[in-house]
Amino acid sequence: MRNSIIFFTLILLVSCGTDPKTQQYNQSEKLQVAVVNYPLYYFAQKIGGDLIQLEFPIPGDIDPAYWIPGDKALTAYQSADIILSNGADYAKWMKNVSLPASRIHNTSGAIEEKYIKLRESGSHSHGPDGEHEHAGYAFTTWLDFKIALTQAKAVKDILLNKLPENKNELDENYNSLKTELLLLNELMTKASDLIGDQFIIGSHPVYQYLAQAYDLHIHSVHFEPNEMPSENQWIEFDQLLEKYPSGIMLWEDNPLPEVKEILNSKGIQIIVFNPCGNKPESGSFIEIMNMNIKTLENILNQ
Amino acid sequence: MKQSFYLAIKYLQFHRVRTLILVCSIGLILYLPAGLQKLITESETQMLGRAEATPIIVGAKGNSTDLVINTLYFEQTKIDELALKTLDILAETKFGYSIPIISIFNARGFPIIGTNLDYFNFRNLSIQEGRNLQYVGECVVGHSVAEKLGLSPGDSLISSPENYLDLAGVYPLQMTIVGILEPANTSDDIAVFTDMKTNWIIMGLGHGHQDLKNVNDPNLVLDRDSSNVTASTKLYIFNKIDGRDMGSFHFHGDMNNYPITSILFVPDNHKSATLFRGRFESGEINEQVVVPSIVVENILQNIFRIKQIFNTVFILVGVATLFILGLIVILTLRLRKNELNTMFTIGSSLNKTVEIIGFELLIIVSFSVVVAFILYSFTGIFVEDFIRQFII
Question: Pick from A12, A99, A123: which is nearest to B227 by CB?
Fold first, then answer.
């Protein structure tokens, strides 16, 4: 018995692997951090600063949620020391590719119970499996700025785990970001007070967390900013408007002028509330969010 | 002496068949104990090496030997499956990281191993040709698989159906080979590696099919309303995945309940390993947690016992062979009575005659040693087969 305990201990001593998470990068090089969307890019950049090398290989004109990586982009993710995922089914491509699981970190893992379940695309059935649906969760979690703060904290904790010697710098950077996010939360709470019980139409179902966090009544259609909605989509829109009379509509980006005209003729004012999933052409995450809230306030105060 | 050696050679050349039989028999007798010793020693080194390089295996409760053999050597014995969510339970311990393994299916007789990229880092496997796994539906093959099947990156490999009589069961998936591994001299050489998700697609848990929103063929769509589309079984299910239809692939049900066969758990350090084992001992972790080296040691102890029996048998066979060799020499001398008389008549001394016969025996034994050595040097090649046939 004694011999087997000694043997077991020796075996463990010999075979305990070094955590690949700490093994993968050379201390002289920067920690490589790959992210799946712009909010996480912003959080990691603000917290990690010069201590990390950020990888965000997603082209600017694509919604990262629906992007499918090419070989080169995927190689960048595979070779990163840390892969920051958004959770809530964001970036479905992650399900269909091979990634080193030990390096993937779900930044919203701590608030999984707050995920909003979707049933947006309908279900279908074929073969013996019966009915099933492909929709999962709403994923623009960061539009609830308290969740955004949780995600930022997760980013800080992950970086701290890798760079414990830089604790003070990481803490300081995180606290600065925390202040910004808490301010956004405060501003949005005030804006929601102005909105009150008004119904809001969303051009796309991306505002679920905003609605949940700030007690807003947002009902969405599937309009694209750069497309004229089809006749059926307008019918659907009118039906929604009849059910939930509203004077404001949130858009991810400015719609086509003719769409804007039609909406104005229906007494609807357009508010661009950019979820900022991808890098904006100008400005930062905080600046865009501030602008979103300001636009909302301006329209409501008119 | 030179003349005696010449005469001995000439004699053996004249009786080629008999000489050959003697050389082979003595060669085999010399080789067998040494060869078996080498096979067992190398098998032991190889098996223990792999087991010792694997700190902890977690699997469903059941036969620990089957679990270890399936996980380390990819011998696909039927073992109970775990749910994927076990990975989360292990991750919560924060004692290390987990590498999932699915070892159920095979392709042309070689085990398909579903895992993730951590496995390649953990085993220090590098790609000799092509690239590593990137997308679902791809596979990377071990060096021996590529060599035996003549495969190279860009070729395809089709998973074998579990049961040829079950037409509605698991259907074959055509996997694209994207890389060939460097030789590792372990079971990794005989494996076909895929992502776990590819294995789940083979199981039928995930699939890709035509986009039902765009299908109007009444033979395909049986019913459609605002929230549900019912398609017929004629709907085309992709049996090959490439970049174009990657987006259409999806998985059904709760992935947390998806099956895996085992988990390689890599603790951060010795303390973590001990604490992790402690959690298991206290019943906090319900699964089976085994230290592979202990299980493999037990397997090898049986082999040592068999080796001892074999050694005894070989000693007895060796002694019997020596007796037979003596008998052959005596009978040969009797057969060569007239020849020896002629030699004495033409003036050969007894010493010269003994010298000639001594040289004959020396040449036969020398060639036998060469045969034994050649066989011995080839023994290493069969270590992997020996392990598979006789040990696991």
Answer: A123
